[in-house]
Amino acid sequence: MVDCYTSKWFARLRHPLLRWYRAQRRDLPWRKTTDPYAIWVSETMLQQTQVATVIDYYRRFLARFPNVVTLAGAEEQEVLALWAGLGYYRRARQLHAAAQVMATEFGGEFPSAFEDILKLPGVGRYTAGAIASFAFDQRAPVLEANTIRLFSRLLALRDAPSRAASQRRLWEFAEQILPRRSGGSGEINQAVMELGSLICTPKQPDCDSCPVARMCPTFELGLQSEIPRPNPKKAFVAKNHALVVIWNRGKVLMRRNPPGQWWDGLWDFPRTDVTGDGSNASFFDAARPDSEDSLSGVRSALSRDLGLRCVPLEHFRTIKHGVTRFRISLFCYRAEREDSASSLRKLEAEWRWVDIRSPPDLPLTSTAEKLRRALMV
Ligand code: SF4
């Protein structure tokens, strides 16, 4: 079979694509700059977060940390606090760590060589390609959720995109779509990402408005709902966590998660894992979180894991959330403290009574922030 994806085919694709992009692109703040630092911040924020949410965070972050040097010199807690609410705090830590690498190894300048960008903490092939092409207009391909879907459809790819052979083909396509001569790669990358985001959407793509519809085999075959094929589902592990809200004179007890634990460095209500197999005499029963067994299971788990002595009184809310391959049911209790102030000071991690009526300047985990808002209602 003759491969129709020749350099002529790509040249014919680029023309209507660029015309559409120049007329239809969204007016986003990070599109108005070629500063690699600002582009890097926006790309990092946009991983796992919607454009509309990112805009304000991006502006605040750049106002406080306008360049590599200011970010590198900041305290990690301040960087995390500015990130509060965006979630996935690992991204903020990696930005901070990468800024420190640039401060020491590149004299506080953003490196321009693709290989150097790729070596920065938290920067993968996609982000390096985005920075290299948007900021320096280098011929560096990009592949992320929107372009994976668009390219899969332009290729009529029948295999799941996550398979190794599909990944190879998609990256090859992402490179082939870029002009061979220097210049213009950044704009083509922006255009394909925008087309994937606005027109070639996961459900009911707007093929009637698509500038490249006449070159799309998926459209021709009517296979938009079958391509891209879903990636194989990951196996998730269910976990039960218990959390206690302990009040004292209008403040609540919070704890900074120690290094090496989930949400390391972020503040949270005291919480611990109460997932059990039901074989103990006293165990946590997720179906009856207010039962005596459950209350006593929560009490002993908090004492064992955190050294916190308290009496859970009443279950008032359950929050479901996910962390990597874990699906967590977080059972929230009101509780009374048994510890004295001095015994709290002896606990290993950092503990503090926090006034949660105004947004604290501590970086909270996203579930702690959700609960903080709920408690204020
Ligand atoms: S024609 Fe439809 S399926 Fe094909 S690229 Fe355009 S929007 Fe996507």
Question: How would you describe what is shown here?
Answer:
This protein is of the alpha+beta class and 377 residues long. The chain has two domains: 215 residues, Hypothetical protein, domain 2 (Endonuclease III, domain 1); 140 residues, Nucleoside Triphosphate Pyrophosphohydrolase, CATH 3.90.79.10. Helices cover 44% and strands 14% of the residues. Strands 1, 2, 3, 4, 5, 6 and 7 form a seven-stranded mixed β-sheet that branches. Bound molecules: iron/sulfur cluster. Iron/sulfur cluster binds next to helix 9 and helix 12.
What can be said about the biggest beta sheet? 7 strands, mixed
What top-tier CATH class of the largest domain fits best? Mainly Alpha
Identify the bound ligands.
iron/sulfur cluster
Instruction: Provide the structure class.
Output: alpha+beta
The overall pLDDT, averaged over residues, is: 92
- Estimate the strand proportion: 5-15%
Number of helical stretches of at least 4 residues = 15
Compressed to H and E, one letter per element, the order equals HHHHHHHHHHHHEEEEHEEHEH
Set down the secondary structure blueprint:
Layout lengths: L6 H18 L11 H11 L4 H14 L3 H5 L3 H8 L6 H16 L8 H5 L6 H12 L8 H11 L8 H13 L8 H14 L18 H5 L15 E12 L2 E6 L10 E2 L2 E3 L18 H15 L3 E14 L2 E12 L3 H6 L3 E5 L11 H11 L1
Parallel strand pairs: 1-6
Antiparallel strand pairs: 1-2, 1-4, 2-3, 2-7, 5-6
The chain binds iron/sulfur cluster.
The site of iron/sulfur cluster has 14 residues, from helix 9 and helix 12.
